[in-house]
Specification:
Number of helices: 3
Number of domains: 1
CATH topology: Ribosomal Protein S5, domain 2
Number of strands: 4
CATH class: Alpha Beta
Shape: globular
Helix content: 25-40%
Distance between the termini: 27 Å
Radius of gyration: 14 Å
Strand content: 15-25%
């Protein structure tokens, strides 16, 4: 589970990440990333990385959507250090995520994080 300080929950934050961030898509998920220094809000340099998840009904029933988001939370918790302080990330699930394992998500997210990092000019 992600610690509360690392959860992205407000709809305004999701909208800002979708509108202003960079995205990288895969077969199971799409990663949207807004660096902390790209934000319209003043964030302190030590602000935590905040991550949110979106799974529509196209992914499956409620049980499947929650299962997928649980797997993704676990995988993303291990990758918090990959993002600069203050970054906001949204992981949007695609229908193919329904039959995926945590290992599948880990491989895809590693690739998408690198792709998004290149696009954002970070590091």
């Amino acid at each position: 589970m992600l610690p509360a300080a690392h959860r992205l929950t407000r709809p305004e934050d999701f909208r800002e990440v979708f509108r202003r961030g960079v995205s990288a898509g895969g077969s199971r998920v799409v990663l949207h990333w807004l660096r902390g220094d790209d934000s319209t809000r003043d964030l302190d340099p030590g602000a935590p990385v905040r991550i949110g998840f979106v799974a529509s009904k196209k992914v499956g029933n409620a049980v499947m959507r929650h299962r997928v988001k649980r797997q993704l939370r676990h995988v993303m918790r291990e990758r918090l250090e990959e993002f600069p302080p203050g970054a906001r990330v949204v992981v949007r699930c695609l229908p193919a995520a329904a039959g995926s394992t945590s290992g599948d998500f880990a491989c895809e997210l590693d690739r998408l994080i690198n792709k998004a990092r290149e696009r954002s000019g970070s590091r």
